[in-house]
Design a protein that fits this description.
single chain, mainly alpha, 71% helix, globular, NAD, transmembrane, EC 7.1.1.-
Length: 307
């Protein structure tokens, strides 16, 4: 619980600073004095002070429940992510890959509920875009994860790390790209943020949210970044494998996850937002063929190794 409430906020603070440096943003560098250390505190106070408004025509229960549905699944996923060797995992599951992917898919339902319940056409459009994006990018993400499971011969996340070898890095590089990119799209992070296009449909499914409820959606986004980066490091980068892994394995997992989180932020400030048709085309004509290619390559290499 402490990790889930602290590390996503650290990622949020890092995003403020990285974007400030890369794009020359002055505001986030001044709050609190040295290097804008109090920017995150200022944001928290701002959200806490804002009035909690529910639109008159909204489905109140669904509207109020949506932020929790968006946030809690990422906390549940963290239970199954192995942080270090020797059983350093909340709950080791035999079908860990399918569990984490299924629960991450539930998190996206929060945006669908928010868009449907808001009684706002812009929010509904954002929710429908979220649904289309979820269906398109869930498939390549699952195929890329299946490639690693095939290579390791197990669906257990600790089992995959036990079977990991350094030469998997170039072998599974295509799958790593597909998995990480599809994960960004499922989190609706730039450049895959068409469902929350602020210049086109206001803010998509979150247009009617204010105060703490809106802050929960932001926390869910940063929690999703933490989960995606941790899973990518476990599946494709060796997780806790590294020098002195028996005593410092947890540190290697965190370092790899935060390095990937930096890449997520870097992508936000680098690439322009895709159009909706470009976003769908990228999933079906680029990521899915690459994922199938990775599966075929993994099958061929596994057969060659077994003989």
């Amino acid at each position: 619980m402490v990790v889930f409430l602290v590390l996503p906020l650290v990622i949020g603070q890092t995003e403020h600073k990285v974007m400030a440096h890369m794009q020359g943003r002055l505001g986030p560098m001044y709050a609190g004095g040295f290097h804008g250390w109090a920017q995150l505190v200022a944001d928290g106070v701002k959200f806490a002070q804002k009035e909690d408004v529910v639109p008159a025509g909204a489905d109140r229960r669904v509207f109020q429940l949506a932020p929790a549905v968006a946030l809690l699944p990422y906390l549940v996923v963290l239970l199954a992510v192995p942080v270090g060797p020797n059983g350093f995992v909340g709950q080791a599951l035999d079908a860990g890959i399918f569990f984490v992917l299924a629960v991450m898919g539930i998190g996206v339902l929060g945006a669908l509920m928010a868009g449907w319940a808001s009684a706002n056409k812009f929010s509904l459009l954002g929710g429908l875009r979220t649904a289309a994006q979820l269906m398109s990018y869930e498939l390549p993400m699952l195929l890329a994860a299946a490639s690693v499971a095939m290579a390791a011969g197990t669906l257990s996340l600790p089992g995959i790390l036990d079977a990991f070898h350094w030469w998997w890095l170039p072998w599974q590089a295509i799958g790593a790209f597909v998995f990480f990119t599809a994960g960004l799209a499922e989190l609706q992070r730039p450049p895959f943020d068409m469902p929350v296009a602020d210049s086109e449909i206001i803010f998509g499914a979150y247009t009617e949210y204010t105060g703490i409820r809106f802050a929960f959606f932001l926390l869910a986004e940063y929690g999703g970044i933490l989960v995606l980066c941790a899973l990518t490091s476990v599946l494709f980068l060796g997780g806790w494998h590294g020098p002195l892994s028996d005593s410092l394995g947890w540190l290697w997992t965190l370092l790899k996850a935060f390095a990937l989180a930096f890449v997520v932020i870097w992508a936000r400030v680098t690439f322009p937002r895709l159009r909706e048709d470009q976003l769908m085309r990228f999933a079906w004509t680029v990521l899915i063929p690459l994922a199938l290619l990775q599966l075929a390559l993994t099958g061929i290499i596994k057969v060659a190794i077994s003989q």
